[in-house]
Amino acid sequence: MMGMFSGFLKLMLLYGMFLGLAQGKVHYREFVLKEANFTRLCETKSMLVVNDSFPGPVIRVTKGDTVYVNVQNQGNYGLTIHWHGVHQPRNSWSDGPEYITQCPIEPKSNFTYEIIFSDEEGTLWWHAHSDWTRHSVHGAIVILPKEETGYPFLQPDGEEILVFGSWYKGDVNKEVNEDLETGNVTPQSNAYTINGQPGDLCPCSNESTYRWQVEHGKTYLLRLVSAVMNVEIYFAIAQHNLTVVGMSGSYVKPILTDVVMISPGQTMDVLVTANQPLGRYYMAARQYDSIRQGVKNYDKENVTAILEYKGNYTPSVSPSFPNNLPTYADFNPAIEFMKRIRSLANKDHPINVPQNITTRMYVTASENNVLVDLGGENVTALASSLNNISWVNPTTDVLLAYYRNISGIYTADFPDNPPSFFNFTEDDSPDDTTLSVQGTKVRMLNYNEEVEIVFQGTNLLDVSMDHPMHLHGYSFYVIGSGYGVFDIETDPKGYNFDDPPKLNTVTLPKNGWVAIRFKASNPGVWLWHCHYERHLSWGMSSVFIVKNGGTPETSIREPPPYLPPCKDSFTSRLLQYENSDGNRLNKID
């Protein structure tokens, strides 16, 4: 079997070289997916992981390299892998979202991804992009700068990776599928993890708490990855300052702070100087949830790891805890932190914000209700939407349908505006705005088109909250954000064109808006969605199809020699009805 895989990898390499895309070094990795037992919170469970590890293996490259990852699925169900934040120029075929750019890698089969790194630099990550499997299938990506350029800060003395995750005691995919079929709220995590461990403050966990040893006086590059499923988190290290120098595979102006807020899907590069008295210090995180005060059903656990100084000293009975770590409902630290994020915008790291906008979109992100058939009875269930459209996965992936001109898989009519305008952030929304429409609607973009999107948060069903919005295949400039309903006359006057951050995942604030710009210079099929997994399951996503340019170098690549075959997807529990009057409205309590 391994000989066959090796031969296929060589074929893929020759394919990439033929297309002239392998610019830096070429690496090969084997990802073996199978069930393994893990004990957390006093209970043992089996879950799908890569190479028997949770989190999974780190991919380490230099800017401009290419990696071939052969994924062998020895698990019990199909899945795909996404390389979050990697732009994959002209190569949607290896982007990974299920039923968007490929169909699942079925059990007892394999698929080789070609991961093409281009302008990314810093920390990114990879994760499963099927159902909720990413809760256990994920890992970090480290992209080093080229030797001739180096970091835009002093060379650190060392580095460390911290991956934040969500732990569920039960079979989360089974529970989620049941909840989707019945219209119930999807499960909450039982704890959070740092590098796979809940930490000292959780039951049966203090012996396995993750520890990071440092030497006094040295400065370290700490790479943070949030693989958390459905909430943002605050993170701090007791008595130590943090200097944020990168986000989403791009550098930012240094931000000196004692706490950061990180959303699902986001990555950060942080400098930490070990300048405190020898001892042990908690690195701690807790949930920040913007939904609304009074909500009691959330994961209240604090996750901890330990920063431990090397040397001769008598450690305290318990490490110091960061007393500056904000509480669950403390909004201000998150707001103030996000305001400070700016690109370097200098000679070595220039910016190029699109100015000739030809497509303007105003996209509302909402919680909704939909009609479902539950045992022959029509009831309402929870959903989410963009411009009142709840995405439904097709039975054949969108990319293949587009490339081969297969009709009936999607429609090219995703709207540039919501169906109606009202005070989106008011407490009492019109009743006729709460039901969404289900469909597989995409937005076509011309090659090199310059796009501005204003995402608008809403308070439908009284569940306004932050939404971490992620765009595949691109990084974008975040030119503005604010609270309330976006004012097209006054708010653009405050846009930042001097040093806006360049991100792949941005927080749409609770009852607010955020404006982004990008140039559609990467032809292909690219998903965009909220990175809360429950919102993705409920339909808060859509697809851009960026058309080819006029040359082979500006056109989508040909498909690889092999693609996983398509079977029927779990397309939807959703049914469409023209008349939705009189339906019961579910609310999240």
TrEMBL record:
GO terms for biological process: lignin catabolic process. Residues 1-24 form the signal peptide. The keyword Glycoprotein applies. InterPro entries: Cu-oxidase-like_N, Cu-oxidase_2nd, Cu-oxidase_C, Cu-oxidase_fam, Cu_oxidase_CS, Cu_oxidase_Cu_BS, Cupredoxin, CuRO_1_LCC. GO terms for molecular function: copper ion binding; hydroquinone:oxygen oxidoreductase activity. CDD domains: CuRO_1_LCC_plant (cd13849), CuRO_2_LCC_plant (cd13875), CuRO_3_LCC_plant (cd13897). It catalyses: 4 hydroquinone + O2 = 4 benzosemiquinone + 2 H2O. Its EC number is 1.10.3.2. The keyword Metal-binding applies. PANTHER family: LACCASE (PTHR11709:SF517), MULTI-COPPER OXIDASE (PTHR11709). Belongs to the multicopper oxidase family. This is Laccase.
